[in-house]
């Protein structure tokens, strides 16, 4: 809008803008640019939302496959973090979670590099799980218990290997088959199979 008449509002506005410092005008331009970016954000958000939905769907398919793999072997179950959690929950119902806790403690123990920490951790694990009448005593024979006790005198990352192997065998032959037959795992595997079936149909 242009106007040459005295007292015209447009003319007054132009004079007012001309009188403003350049810094103010630059700030106004910057604000305008930012507002433009904000106005376009919903569109960007929509695209990001679609991408996250695809990633979520992919994660669900992966977890469904994982659940079904647990029944292939005990090793497959132990390789899966969520599988270990599900198995631990099941063992709690049987009051035998100390076997898995001991196995996990041994796995963590093997990663210890400091000799000082190795010795202190070894004693702590032995006192908690292995020694006779320990607070969370695992079910191993007397001979294995004594071998493990002797290993503590020169603690290495392998000092629990025999006791850990015996506990693992016990879980694999005893608790693991019952876990696979449990109502909780049966429900999980049905849901996983249903989820995979739906996924396959949607891709055909």
Automatic annotation (TrEMBL):
Q: Where is this region: Disordered?
A: 182-204
What topology does the record note for this protein and the membrane?
Answer: Lipid-anchor
> What is its biological role?
Regulates G protein-coupled receptor signaling cascades. Inhibits signal transduction by increasing the GTPase activity of G protein alpha subunits, thereby driving them into their inactive GDP-bound form. Plays an important role in the phototransduction cascade by regulating the lifetime and effective concentration of activated transducin alpha. May regulate extra and intracellular mitogenic signals.
Descriptive protein name: Regulator of G-protein signaling 16
Where the protein is mainly located, per its record?
A: membrane
What Pfam families does the record tag this protein with?
RGS
Which GO terms of the molecular function aspect are on file? GTPase activator activity
The Gene Ontology biological process annotation of the record reads: negative regulation of signal transduction
Q: Where is the signal peptide?
A: 1-19
Any GO CC annotation of this UniProt entry: membrane
Q: Does the keyword Metal-binding apply?
A: no
Q: Which PANTHER family match?
A: REGULATOR OF G PROTEIN SIGNALING, REGULATOR OF G-PROTEIN SIGNALING 16
């Amino acid at each position: 809008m242009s106007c040459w008449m005295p007292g015209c509002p447009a003319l007054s506005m132009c004079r007012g803008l001309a009188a403003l410092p350049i810094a103010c005008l630059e700030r106004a331009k910057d604000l305008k640019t930012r507002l433009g970016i904000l106005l376009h954000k919903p569109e960007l958000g929509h695209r990001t939302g679609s991408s996250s939905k695809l990633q979520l769907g992919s994660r669900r398919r992966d977890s469904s496959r994982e659940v079904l793999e647990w029944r292939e072997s005990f090793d497959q179950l132990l390789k899966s973090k969520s599988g270990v959690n599900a198995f631990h929950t099941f063992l709690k119902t049987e009051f035998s979670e100390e076997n898995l806790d001991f196995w996990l403690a041994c796995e963590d123990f093997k990663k210890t590099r400091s000799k000082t920490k190795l010795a202190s951790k070894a004693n702590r694990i032995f006192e908690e799980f292995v020694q006779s009448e320990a607070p969370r005593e695992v079910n191993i024979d007397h001979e294995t218990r004594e071998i493990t006790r002797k290993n503590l005198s020169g603690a290495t990352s392998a000092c629990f290997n025999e006791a850990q192997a015996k506990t693992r065998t016990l879980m694999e032959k005893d608790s693991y088959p019952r876990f696979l037959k449990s109502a909780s795992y049966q429900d999980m595997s049905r849901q996983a199979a249903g989820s995979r079936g739906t996924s396959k149909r949607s891709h055909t």
